[in-house]
Amino acid sequence: MKTSTILLNTPLVLNLSPETDAPSTFENCSLTWEQDALTVAPIAPDTKNKIPALQNKVWLQNCLQRSPISRVYLDPAMEESVIKSWIEICNAAQKQIFLKVPSAPDLPQSKRAGAWRIKRVIDWLAAVILLLVLSPLMGLLAVCVRLDSPGPMLFRQWRVGYQGQLFQICKFRSMQVDAVARLVEVMCKQAGLHYLNMVPRITRVGYRLRKLSLDELPQLFNVLQGEMSLVGPRPWALYDAIRIESGLRKRLNVLPGITGPWQVSTRSNELDLYAVTCRDLAYLQQWGLMKDFKILLLTIPKVFFRSGAY
What we know:
Blueprint: E1 12-14, E2 29-34, E3 37-42, E4 50-51, H1 57-66, E5 71-74, H2 80-92, E6 96-99, H3 108-111, H4 113-148, E7 154-160, E8 166-172, H5 179-188, H6 204-211, H7 219-224, E9 229-231, H8 238-241, E10 257-259, H9 261-264, H10 273-285, H11 289-304
Parallel strand pairs: 1-4, 3-5, 5-6, 9-10
Antiparallel strand pairs: 1-2, 2-3, 7-8
C-alpha cells in the first residue's frame, strides 16, 4: 500500500462547521507545513484555500500523530484560548510545542558558547547532587501536601523555555485543586505581571511552602531534563509570554532559571511586564558564570528572610 506526504508551503484555514465540539477554537488558523514542522498562525476570515471542516479535536490529534510532523510552532498573536487548545492537542499527539519567537544571535548561548556549555554541565551536576541531598526533605514535603488537602502532590503548568519551547514546570501544589480556574479569572483582570499576593484558595501547607520558596524544589527535575537552569530569567507562563511586546520577544529564546535577576532584586515589588523583560535582557547582555554565582549567593538571604515571597 503506497502512502504519500503532501508538503504545504501556503497557508490553509481550518474552517469548522457549527456541529463541531469547539467551533470557535480553530477558526481562522492558518497552517503552514514544511518538512517536519507545522506553523499555526492567525489569518483573516475571508482568506481562500480553506480545507474541509474538522469534526473534533480527536480527529486533528489523530492527523498529527500519523503525520511526519515533529514540531508545532504557535504564533503568540493568536488568542490565548486558541493557543491552549493547540497545546492540548499537540501534547496528546506527543509533538514538541513552541511559541514562534524571533531569533536572538546576541544571547549568551550563541555569543559565549564555551562558557554556556560549562554552565549546562554545572546545572546538571548540581541538580543531581541537590536532588540526592534534598530527597528526604522533598519526600516529607510531598506527604505534607497530600495530607493537607486532597489532590496531587505536584502542580504542573505550561511555561515557555529555551527557543520558545513549551514545557511543564513542576512545583509542589500550594493551592486547592479547583483554584486554577479562579486564579486565571483573577489574573485576567490584572494589568501587570501575573503574580498575586492574594492567591485564591491557598492551602495551609502551601502558604508555608511559598514563604520559604520550598514549593519550587521539584523544578530541579526540570533542570535535570534540560528544560531549566539553576540561574536564568523567570520562566514565563503562557498568559504573560503572549503579552510581551513583539520587539522584546527574543527574550523567549532564553533558558529560564529557578532563580534569577528578578528574584534577587525587586521580586514581587516589580510587576511591570515591560520593566521585568528589560531587566532580563540586560542580565543576558552582561551574562557570565561569576554573575550567575553571585545571583545564587544573593538568593540565600532572599529565601531565608522571605523577601518578596508570598
